[in-house]
Q: What sequence folds into this?
């Protein structure tokens, strides 16, 4: 489905070239690339982001929630800074598999500031047959629905300003102090690089104070054919997926 969607008007070589540029932008020109979503300028980069990083992040997040052992709870999965929607989809798909039937009381709410990512998230949630809503909004200014069961922020917090990051942390801590029946679970996933996330130790300490856990992950996964093809053509080596997470 991703190939049909994104290769309708692009050649494979166009996406490969864009993937090299996108990878370079995130590593070498990170600050300028993240400003105003410039990393997603152009159809080629958007296709590369959806076809390459989307599946990788889905598989990694699915691995993390399986290893943590997140239990099924009905309600809304809030996908903060949802991007293409793979974090919310991975968690919802995993939790749905724990239920005895197709539960109608599980839905995903994707929130992002970029119109293109919201459309892509809508496509992702629909492809997985999930009840969903997408909404334009800022992660640090989002009020959670009353029925929120889990909040996930995957590869988002490192892209926030210091001020917005501090605001989000205080909001998440406040959510963790709600009465147990209203208290959402919180999952933060970030790159393993300390350079990208110099604030990590502070957040890990705050999560541990409220009874949370901090983990580092290295996972070998079975890559989809399109990801293997793109990686080989672009000279990338995604055999080992890595991340850090906080969960409470």
A:
């Amino acid at each position: 489905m991703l190939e049909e969607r994104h290769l309708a008007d692009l050649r494979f070589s166009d996406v490969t070239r864009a993937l090299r540029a996108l990878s370079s932008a995130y590593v070498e020109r990170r600050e300028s690339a993240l400003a105003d979503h410039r990393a997603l300028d152009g159809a080629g980069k958007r296709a590369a982001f959806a076809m390459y990083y989307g599946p990788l992040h889905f598989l990694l997040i699915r691995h993390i929630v399986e290893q943590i052992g997140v239990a099924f709870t009905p309600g809304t999965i809030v996908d903060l800074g949802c991007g293409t929607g793979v974090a919310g989809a991975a968690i919802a798909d995993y939790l749905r598999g724990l239920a005895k039937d197709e539960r109608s009381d599980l839905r995903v709410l994707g929130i992002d500031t970029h119109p293109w990512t919201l459309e892509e998230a809508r496509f992702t949630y629909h492809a997985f047959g999930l009840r969903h809503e997408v909404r334009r909004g800022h992660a640090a200014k989002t009020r959670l629905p009353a029925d929120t069961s889990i909040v996930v922020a995957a590869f988002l917090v490192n892209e926030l300003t210091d001020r917005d990051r501090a605001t989000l942390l205080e909001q998440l801590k406040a959510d963790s102090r709600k009465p147990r029946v209203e208290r959402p679970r919180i999952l933060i996933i970030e790159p393993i690089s300390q350079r990208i996330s110099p604030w990590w130790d502070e957040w890990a300490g705050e999560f541990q104070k409220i009874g949370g856990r901090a983990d580092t992950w290295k996972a070998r996964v079975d890559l989809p054919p399109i990801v293997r093809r793109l990686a080989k053509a672009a000279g990338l080596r995604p055999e080992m997926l890595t991340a850090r997470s906080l969960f409470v």
Remarks:
- The chain has a mean pLDDT of 90.
